[in-house]
Amino acid sequence: MAIQALHAAATGMTALSTELDVISNNLANVNTTGFKASRVNFEDLVYQQKRQPGLESGPEQTPPAGLQVGLGTRISNTQYDFSLGNAMPTNNPTDLFVDGDGFFQVNILNEAGGGIGYTRAGNFFVNSEGDLVLGNSDGPRLTDGISIPAEVQPNQLSVSPDGVVNATMPDGSIQELGQLNLHTFVNKAGLKSIGGNIYVETEISGPAISGTPGEGVLGTIIQGHLESSNVSPVNELVSLIKTQRAFEMNSQTIQAADELLQTVSNLRRF
Predict the structure, then answer these.
(1) Of 1, 39, 102, 116, which residue has the fewest beta carbons closer than 10 angstroms?
(2) Domain C-terminal end among 227, 243, 259
(3) Are residues 107 and 222 in the same domain?
């Protein structure tokens, strides 16, 4: 009946509204350093079995298919696209690009919930204490414990592809300041985003797998570059148009079901 069509179309409009929210967020972050786009995955709902497949309808009569009517759709999950963004040259010595799957590890401030976070954004600053901090609104510190001496300027820092941080001292000597490590996960799609370009691990992401740059799939570090957002504006705009059209078609389904119900209700007049 038309009642089922109303409810099925309503579930479609609800799910498509959420997809529109996700697309909007992707487009809003097209210039966010290290941002990873999300996509929405849909799944169909339970089916009303009006005739079971394979059920005999008479002597030696077995229909080749049953009669099943779906009751709509819903969003099963949102999935991150962790494909690598483009490397943007900045010539800033504290800007770091990970050419691989690795994440930097940072200490989340207590005011922001505390704990350990992971980020693909490599826009680091040197704070007043000489620590490397992520350039977001909270400024969490790198967990690698690298401290920059006060007499060393940022342009005197060098970071090798395998993560070794060196500084040129005022006397011209080279001093090793520490080692940057990278981290990855078995299921990166299971990470939880908390904003500020930071993810935290969850049970389904699994624990962090740590190592030095250049090991396995972690990738190497390129100094003086940043990773751009991997959002494709063209693809997102195409998805936006498709979502709008699907939303309109579901609204037309509701209109058609309403007209059918109105016809049925008017039968009482005859």
Answers:
(1) 1
(2) 227
(3) yes
Helix (H) / strand (E) containing 247: helix 233-266
Structure tokens at 66: 């049953």
Domain that holds residue 11: 2-81+232-269
226 DSSP β-pair partners: 88
The alpha-helical segments, DSSP class H, found in 34-91 are none
pTM for the structure as a whole: 0.86
Q: How many domains does the chain have?
A: 2
Q: Are residues 99 and 66 in the same domain?
A: no
* Same structural domain, 215 and 247: no
Residues 127 and 200 in one domain: yes
Closest CA to 8 of 199, 203, 249, 270: 249
Name the phi and psi angles at 78, rounded to 5: -110, 145
Same domain membership, residue 144 and residue 26:
no
Dihedral sign of CA atoms 255, 258, 259, 260 in order? positive
